[in-house]
Amino acid sequence: MRCLIVADLHYSLPQYDWLVAEAAKYDLVIIAGDHLDLSAPVDGRAQIVVIGKYLELLRARTRVITCSGNHDLDSRDGDGEKTARWISALNSHGVPADGQSVTLADTLISICPWWDGPLAQKRLADQLARDAAERKPSWVWVHHAPAADSPVSWSGSRFSGDTTLLDLIRTHQPDLVFSGHIHQSPFTKAGSWIDRIGKTWVFNVGQHLGVPPAHIVYDSALREVVWFSMAGIQAHTLKLAADEAITRPLPRLPQPPGWFMAPNQAPVPNPVQNPSSAD
Protein backbone atom coordinates (compact mmCIF):
# COMPACT_ATOMS: atom_id res chain seq x y z
CA MET A 1 0.00 0.00 0.00
CA ARG A 2 1.35 3.39 -0.97
CA CYS A 3 0.06 6.39 0.99
CA LEU A 4 0.26 10.13 0.41
CA ILE A 5 0.13 12.17 3.62
CA VAL A 6 -0.44 15.93 3.95
CA ALA A 7 -1.53 18.24 6.74
CA ASP A 8 -2.21 21.92 7.42
CA LEU A 9 -3.37 22.87 3.93
CA HIS A 10 -5.33 25.71 5.54
CA TYR A 11 -7.69 26.40 2.66
CA SER A 12 -4.86 26.69 0.13
CA LEU A 13 -6.87 25.82 -2.97
CA PRO A 14 -3.81 25.44 -5.24
CA GLN A 15 -2.50 22.84 -2.81
CA TYR A 16 -5.86 21.03 -2.87
CA ASP A 17 -5.77 21.14 -6.68
CA TRP A 18 -2.34 19.48 -6.59
CA LEU A 19 -3.64 16.85 -4.15
CA VAL A 20 -6.57 15.99 -6.42
CA ALA A 21 -4.24 15.72 -9.43
CA GLU A 22 -1.88 13.35 -7.58
CA ALA A 23 -4.42 11.25 -5.68
CA ALA A 24 -4.96 8.50 -8.25
CA LYS A 25 -1.29 7.47 -7.98
CA TYR A 26 -1.85 6.32 -4.39
CA ASP A 27 -3.88 3.68 -2.58
CA LEU A 28 -4.70 6.12 0.20
CA VAL A 29 -4.57 9.86 0.84
CA ILE A 30 -4.34 10.95 4.48
CA ILE A 31 -5.07 14.56 5.45
CA ALA A 32 -3.93 15.05 9.05
CA GLY A 33 -6.09 18.00 10.01
CA ASP A 34 -6.41 21.77 9.59
CA HIS A 35 -8.32 22.04 6.35
CA LEU A 36 -9.61 25.48 7.28
CA ASP A 37 -7.85 28.82 7.81
CA LEU A 38 -9.19 30.89 10.69
CA SER A 39 -7.33 33.98 9.44
CA ALA A 40 -8.73 33.84 5.90
CA PRO A 41 -11.24 36.47 4.74
CA VAL A 42 -13.53 33.68 3.49
CA ASP A 43 -16.23 32.74 6.00
CA GLY A 44 -15.60 29.41 7.71
CA ARG A 45 -18.95 28.00 6.56
CA ALA A 46 -18.04 28.74 2.95
CA GLN A 47 -14.63 27.13 3.44
CA ILE A 48 -16.32 23.96 4.73
CA VAL A 49 -18.49 23.75 1.59
CA VAL A 50 -15.49 24.16 -0.71
CA ILE A 51 -13.34 21.65 1.17
CA GLY A 52 -16.26 19.22 1.07
CA LYS A 53 -16.23 19.44 -2.73
CA TYR A 54 -12.51 18.76 -2.82
CA LEU A 55 -12.98 15.71 -0.60
CA GLU A 56 -15.60 14.42 -3.04
CA LEU A 57 -13.12 14.83 -5.89
CA LEU A 58 -10.44 13.00 -3.90
CA ARG A 59 -12.81 10.18 -2.98
CA ALA A 60 -13.65 9.71 -6.67
CA ARG A 61 -9.95 9.05 -7.35
CA THR A 62 -8.78 7.02 -4.36
CA ARG A 63 -9.44 6.26 -0.70
CA VAL A 64 -9.18 9.26 1.59
CA ILE A 65 -9.29 9.67 5.35
CA THR A 66 -8.92 12.75 7.51
CA CYS A 67 -8.87 13.91 11.10
CA SER A 68 -9.72 17.31 12.53
CA GLY A 69 -7.24 19.97 13.56
CA ASN A 70 -7.62 22.98 15.80
CA HIS A 71 -8.55 25.21 12.84
CA ASP A 72 -11.41 22.85 11.92
CA LEU A 73 -13.49 23.29 15.09
CA ASP A 74 -16.90 24.71 14.19
CA SER A 75 -19.24 23.97 17.11
CA ARG A 76 -19.55 22.60 20.64
CA ASP A 77 -20.70 19.16 21.68
CA GLY A 78 -23.27 18.37 24.36
CA ASP A 79 -20.62 18.78 27.05
CA GLY A 80 -19.67 22.25 25.86
CA GLU A 81 -16.31 21.18 24.44
CA LYS A 82 -15.29 22.42 21.00
CA THR A 83 -15.60 19.92 18.17
CA ALA A 84 -15.33 19.72 14.38
CA ARG A 85 -18.86 18.59 13.66
CA TRP A 86 -18.42 18.91 9.91
CA ILE A 87 -15.42 16.57 10.01
CA SER A 88 -17.37 13.98 12.01
CA ALA A 89 -20.20 14.24 9.46
CA LEU A 90 -17.81 13.04 6.74
CA ASN A 91 -18.16 9.54 8.18
CA SER A 92 -21.65 9.30 6.70
CA HIS A 93 -20.39 10.49 3.30
CA GLY A 94 -17.82 7.79 2.66
CA VAL A 95 -14.78 9.59 4.11
CA PRO A 96 -13.61 7.92 7.34
CA ALA A 97 -12.87 10.67 9.83
CA ASP A 98 -12.79 11.55 13.54
CA GLY A 99 -13.38 8.69 15.94
CA GLN A 100 -13.41 5.99 13.28
CA SER A 101 -11.05 3.12 12.54
CA VAL A 102 -10.58 1.39 9.20
CA THR A 103 -8.77 -1.75 8.14
CA LEU A 104 -6.88 -1.82 4.84
CA ALA A 105 -5.33 -5.22 4.15
CA ASP A 106 -3.22 -5.91 7.25
CA THR A 107 -3.23 -2.31 8.52
CA LEU A 108 -5.54 -0.82 11.15
CA ILE A 109 -5.81 2.97 10.94
CA SER A 110 -7.13 4.89 13.97
CA ILE A 111 -8.42 8.37 13.12
CA CYS A 112 -8.08 10.66 16.12
CA PRO A 113 -10.17 13.81 16.62
CA TRP A 114 -8.77 17.05 17.96
CA TRP A 115 -9.67 17.10 21.64
CA ASP A 116 -10.58 20.35 23.39
CA GLY A 117 -11.40 19.15 26.91
CA PRO A 118 -11.13 16.23 29.34
CA LEU A 119 -14.19 14.36 28.10
CA ALA A 120 -13.07 14.34 24.46
CA GLN A 121 -9.62 13.40 25.67
CA LYS A 122 -11.06 10.40 27.50
CA ARG A 123 -13.06 9.36 24.42
CA LEU A 124 -9.84 9.38 22.42
CA ALA A 125 -8.09 7.22 25.02
CA ASP A 126 -11.06 4.82 25.02
CA GLN A 127 -11.05 4.66 21.21
CA LEU A 128 -7.36 3.71 21.12
CA ALA A 129 -7.80 1.17 23.91
CA ARG A 130 -10.57 -0.51 21.88
CA ASP A 131 -8.42 -0.47 18.76
CA ALA A 132 -5.52 -1.99 20.68
CA ALA A 133 -7.70 -5.07 21.23
CA GLU A 134 -8.25 -5.26 17.43
CA ARG A 135 -4.65 -4.59 16.51
CA LYS A 136 -3.46 -5.79 13.11
CA PRO A 137 0.11 -6.54 11.95
CA SER A 138 0.42 -2.80 11.29
CA TRP A 139 -1.27 -0.09 13.38
CA VAL A 140 -1.30 3.53 12.17
CA TRP A 141 -2.68 6.61 13.95
CA VAL A 142 -3.67 9.89 12.32
CA HIS A 143 -3.53 12.66 14.95
CA HIS A 144 -3.20 16.34 14.09
CA ALA A 145 -0.88 17.42 16.90
CA PRO A 146 2.51 15.69 17.13
CA ALA A 147 3.86 14.05 20.26
CA ALA A 148 5.52 16.17 22.93
CA ASP A 149 9.25 16.03 23.70
CA SER A 150 10.19 14.98 20.18
CA PRO A 151 11.93 16.81 17.32
CA VAL A 152 8.65 16.54 15.39
CA SER A 153 7.12 19.03 17.84
CA TRP A 154 10.07 21.43 18.19
CA SER A 155 8.92 24.97 17.41
CA GLY A 156 12.37 26.48 17.27
CA SER A 157 12.30 27.55 20.90
CA ARG A 158 10.37 24.84 22.77
CA PHE A 159 8.52 21.55 22.39
CA SER A 160 4.88 22.29 21.53
CA GLY A 161 3.46 18.81 21.11
CA ASP A 162 0.70 16.87 22.81
CA THR A 163 1.66 15.24 26.12
CA THR A 164 -1.49 13.10 26.07
CA LEU A 165 -0.49 11.67 22.70
CA LEU A 166 2.98 10.95 24.02
CA ASP A 167 1.50 8.98 26.93
CA LEU A 168 -0.81 7.07 24.59
CA ILE A 169 2.07 6.19 22.29
CA ARG A 170 4.10 4.89 25.22
CA THR A 171 1.11 2.84 26.37
CA HIS A 172 0.10 1.25 23.06
CA GLN A 173 3.21 1.53 20.84
CA PRO A 174 1.49 1.80 17.44
CA ASP A 175 3.72 1.38 14.41
CA LEU A 176 3.29 4.86 12.92
CA VAL A 177 1.69 8.19 13.87
CA PHE A 178 1.13 10.85 11.20
CA SER A 179 0.68 14.44 12.38
CA GLY A 180 1.15 18.10 11.46
CA HIS A 181 0.19 21.21 13.48
CA ILE A 182 3.65 22.59 14.31
CA HIS A 183 4.36 23.92 10.85
CA GLN A 184 8.01 24.77 11.28
CA SER A 185 9.28 21.66 13.09
CA PRO A 186 10.80 19.94 10.04
CA PHE A 187 12.54 23.16 9.03
CA THR A 188 14.19 24.12 12.33
CA LYS A 189 17.74 23.15 13.27
CA ALA A 190 16.71 20.86 16.14
CA GLY A 191 13.40 19.78 14.60
CA SER A 192 12.52 17.00 12.20
CA TRP A 193 9.78 15.43 10.11
CA ILE A 194 10.58 11.98 11.56
CA ASP A 195 11.40 10.50 14.95
CA ARG A 196 10.95 7.31 16.91
CA ILE A 197 9.39 6.96 20.36
CA GLY A 198 10.10 3.46 21.61
CA LYS A 199 9.01 1.24 18.74
CA THR A 200 6.72 3.89 17.23
CA TRP A 201 7.69 6.01 14.23
CA VAL A 202 6.21 9.51 14.46
CA PHE A 203 5.97 12.10 11.71
CA ASN A 204 5.20 15.78 11.23
CA VAL A 205 4.54 16.65 7.59
CA GLY A 206 5.29 20.36 8.07
CA GLN A 207 3.73 23.26 6.22
CA HIS A 208 4.86 25.85 3.70
CA LEU A 209 3.28 27.99 1.02
CA GLY A 210 3.25 27.04 -2.62
CA VAL A 211 2.72 23.95 -4.74
CA PRO A 212 3.32 21.16 -4.08
CA PRO A 213 2.69 21.30 -0.35
CA ALA A 214 5.02 19.53 2.05
CA HIS A 215 4.06 15.86 1.90
CA ILE A 216 5.13 12.38 2.90
CA VAL A 217 4.88 9.22 0.82
CA TYR A 218 4.88 5.92 2.71
CA ASP A 219 5.14 2.47 1.14
CA SER A 220 3.91 -0.07 3.68
CA ALA A 221 5.24 -3.12 1.82
CA LEU A 222 8.76 -1.74 1.59
CA ARG A 223 8.66 0.07 4.96
CA GLU A 224 10.10 3.12 3.23
CA VAL A 225 9.13 6.75 3.65
CA VAL A 226 10.12 9.90 1.75
CA TRP A 227 9.48 13.56 2.62
CA PHE A 228 9.15 16.27 -0.01
CA SER A 229 9.24 19.97 0.87
CA MET A 230 10.79 23.32 0.02
CA ALA A 231 13.80 22.06 2.04
CA GLY A 232 14.37 19.27 -0.47
CA ILE A 233 13.90 15.51 -0.42
CA GLN A 234 14.73 13.20 2.48
CA ALA A 235 14.02 9.50 2.88
CA HIS A 236 14.29 6.85 5.55
CA THR A 237 13.93 3.10 5.92
CA LEU A 238 11.79 2.12 8.90
CA LYS A 239 13.87 -0.91 9.81
CA LEU A 240 16.21 0.25 12.58
CA ALA A 241 16.95 -2.07 15.45
CA ALA A 242 15.17 -1.18 18.70
CA ASP A 243 18.29 0.39 20.22
CA GLU A 244 19.56 2.09 17.05
CA ALA A 245 19.24 5.88 16.83
CA ILE A 246 18.34 7.91 13.76
CA THR A 247 21.42 9.56 12.30
CA ARG A 248 20.77 13.29 12.02
CA PRO A 249 20.67 15.39 10.01
CA LEU A 250 19.16 13.17 7.35
CA PRO A 251 20.85 13.74 4.00
CA ARG A 252 19.11 15.65 1.26
CA LEU A 253 18.63 13.59 -1.86
CA PRO A 254 19.16 14.93 -5.41
CA GLN A 255 16.12 12.96 -6.57
CA PRO A 256 13.47 10.65 -5.10
CA PRO A 257 14.62 7.13 -4.17
CA GLY A 258 14.27 4.37 -6.73
CA TRP A 259 11.30 2.70 -5.04
CA PHE A 260 9.30 5.93 -5.33
CA MET A 261 9.93 6.08 -9.06
CA ALA A 262 8.86 2.46 -9.56
CA PRO A 263 5.21 1.68 -10.40
CA ASN A 264 2.90 1.31 -7.43
CA GLN A 265 1.89 -2.15 -6.32
CA ALA A 266 -1.55 -3.71 -6.61
CA PRO A 267 -4.24 -1.69 -4.80
CA VAL A 268 -5.39 -2.83 -1.38
CA PRO A 269 -8.97 -4.02 -0.80
CA ASN A 270 -11.71 -1.55 0.01
CA PRO A 271 -11.66 -0.30 3.62
CA VAL A 272 -13.81 -2.23 6.07
CA GLN A 273 -15.22 -0.34 9.02
CA ASN A 274 -13.77 -1.69 12.24
CA PRO A 275 -16.55 -2.89 14.58
CA SER A 276 -14.74 -1.23 17.47
CA SER A 277 -15.13 2.24 15.94
CA ALA A 278 -16.47 5.00 18.13
CA ASP A 279 -19.99 6.23 17.51
Task: Explain what this protein looks like in three dimensions.
- The protein has helices at about 15-20, 45-60, 85-90, 120-135, 165-170, 260; strands spanning about 1-5, 30, 65, 75, 80-85, 100-105, 105-110, 140, 175-180, 195, 200-205, 215-220, 225-230, 230-235, 270-275.
- With about 280 residues, the chain is an alpha/beta fold.
- The strands form 3 sheets. Strands 10-11-9-8-7-6-15 form a 7-stranded mixed beta sheet.
- Strand 1 (about 1-5), helix 1 (about 15-20) and strand 2 form a beta-alpha-beta unit.
- The longest helix has 18 residues, at about 45-60.
- The chain is globular and about 45 Å long.
Descriptors:
279 residues; alpha/beta; seven-stranded mixed β-sheet; six-stranded mixed β-sheet; disordered C terminus
Largest sheet: 7 strands, mixed
Low-confidence parts: 271-279
Strand content: 15-25%
- β-strand number: 15
Identify the overall geometry. globular
Let me know the average pLDDT: 93
If you compute it from the alpha carbons, what radius of gyration comes out, rounded to the nearest whole angstrom?
Answer: 17 Å
What share of the residues lie within helices? 10-25%
Structural class: alpha/beta
Strand arrangement across the biggest beta sheet: 10-11-9-8-7-6-15
* Helix and strand sequence: EHEHEEEHEEHEHEEEEEEHE
C-alpha termini separation:
27 Å
Question: How many helical stretches?
Answer: 6
